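debug: dumping io for the single-chain case to check the tokenizer round-trip. Nothing else runs in this session.
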Amino acid sequence: MAKIKQNNFLDTVDEVFTSAKKAGVLHLHSDGNVFSGRTIQINGKQHYHFGTTGYLGLEQDPRLKEAAIDAIRRYGTQFPLSKSYISHPLYATLEEKVGQMYGQPVIITKNSTLGHLAVIPTAVRDEDGVILDHQVHWSVQNATQLLKTRGVPVEMIRHNNLDMLEDKIKSLIGKCSKIWYMADGVYSMYGDFAPIEQLMQLANKYPQLHFYFDDVHGMSWNGENGTGYVSSILNELPKNVLLVGTLSKTFGASGAVAVCSDKRLHNKIKTFGGPLTFSAQLEPASVGAAIASADIHLSTEIYSLQAELQARINYFNHLLDQTELPLIDRNNSPVFYIGTGMPISGYNFVQRLLKEGFYVNLGIYPAVPVKNTGVRITISRHNKASDIKGLVEAMEYHYTAALEETGASLLKVRKAFKMATEKIKEEEKQLIPHDFKILIEDSIEKIEKKEWNRMFKGKGILDWDGQLFLENVFRGNSKKEHNWDFKYLIIKDEHDEPILASSLSHALWKDDLLAPASTSLKVEEQRKTMGAYYLTSQILSTGSIFTEGDHIYINESHPNLLKVWKVFIDILESIDHEHYNSSMIILRDFSSDTPYNGIFHDHGFVKVNMPESSVYKNFNWETPEEFQATLSRRSRRHFGKDIAAFEDKFELTICQNVQQDKLPKLQVLYENVRQNNPGLNTFSFPEKLFRSMNEDPNWEFLLLYLKKEWTENNSMELVGVMFCYKNLEMTYVPEFIGMDYQYAREFNVYRQLLYRTIKRAKNLGYKKIDFGLTAAFEKRKLGAEIIPKVCYVQAKDNFSLELLETMQNSR
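debug: decoded output
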């Protein structure tokens, strides 16, 4: 498979959010003249509010409101000066009171995002290293981007995986002064906790280990003086811990707080901490409200408030325990997550709850993997017991209905979240509509040849003979990356007419196939010490790494086509669960304007841009002069300068079979291209591939020789080869290329091979050349038609992609 371009992250998020907005569950607007906290008005209707992060309800406390109003009256709406010059009069009081809460001097920032940007680049020195929990909040991960430009290594581990953390510590211990592990105290989606006690034990073992905890979701509702979950476990803040809390959310005001017991580091951050110097300070109203909240936190009242909230949390947990609703992580935090799996199921569930008068948050990519969509429910002191009971009753009724209406099931959801399925009362089976016939085979030899070729004639190496060739090559090899499993799926209507068909492969891919070339180079360096299979995953895809083009046959005119797409996705997921448990399912290759975009997104697939596809069809010429006349004026100049000027320096030999002793040379030429092109970072192919090509009548080799007068040893030199497949006398497929880089650039070997390929296809009478996905710019110069392509990826875990992202822009 050709290199997939790194999709623009914002474009991907925009696709997903746009779909959710259209479903009416995201980017909503609250209306009404008042807001109580217990209910929230949307589209003129009051809903019980289960989406707040003000867990203690302090944002509605009259004392905070009056303090904010009084501060505005006395000091205005803002104090427009940097704190580096002068702070407004209330700041000292706030810092003193929050410092009393923690028993440590503190630093107040405008918000937690700016706080991370102020603290992290100051605390982490050039000789340090960073390890991120892959679920640590985006604002922390974003702040570490600044470290990469300084050459600070930034690594990532799977969520709460202490074994992986220890391995990363060992890899950095001889290279870094301090090793910072950055994590949330309470994670914002599932409400689960960082394993603080085990982390402290790890620090005893590795004195270089320091911690940076973002505990904004643990604030106020937990800990002495409401100082948060992390503080509740640590009791006293060690010197190797930097803690960030919030004055927003549960605290009821605005701003954030950074706490560290290292006095020198505290002074350094406060003296010059990026946004602390150059950003505006908190508005007087926010500081006034925060002071009033701090007074509550410093009184015994905070423990009464915490107890009231905990009683509601316990009640909600008790009610959920009596249902089959898939609570992803049961704990005593105010954050709950009910999985729905597919986005479309999540949309449906949220819509149903809105109609019943309950507002909950939708959890969606990129906060969670697309297939781990769900509803995020938060409990606050505003919620009454009757509200909570009503929500659980509504969820229990509408959850099953939402799944059924969207073609999902509880079994599928629990599988998507890797939850136990034994407690499901009745075994759920995939229901295929009775008006479809499903054929699934594990070899193309079990598929009727004429029927398959009728669907895939002229489509790359996807015809019957091409698939048989791939089966023979990628089975029975010594290396696991050279052994692929194949499936063939045909969905027919009641009249035995195929509606949709595809070949599938299950194989080991390099995770950085989806990453920029610069990232692949870094990963390859790591593989030298971590092993060849570091950052690799088993993938189930339509087609295979070897193939390109229309991997799915579609009867576009069939009236049940949209219904069939849903059945197809169900079958793919069933095949994967029963046989493979892959890291990703990938649907390739679609035009960028495919009408099925919405279906794929709704069912948990994210669109990823691919390189443009190149197809040559213009064979209405007979002579080289007539060929040149088909090109644009600029391309004709290019042709004359870079191709025609070198043509007489080469000789081309077309071989159905080459001598056995020449095959290793062809493999070396291919490996030259593979190893010199990190933008095409696949595993090597087995040696058996080249022997099989040599024995298969559907393959031929275009061997390009540089004449002896142009070589160093004064003899004919094989400098290039095009490996070409012939699809049923319709499509010529230059599958991949090999070159000798000693001569490639000086003599434009690649361009020469492209031109010779066009001439060969013309001589054979073919109507089309599938030039594949790479080097579209070069192929366009020779008259190829360029077609934008995308694929759709359903990842079960965002870890690998997020880890690769940490490698970008780093030195």
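debug: round-trip ok. The mean pLDDT is 91.
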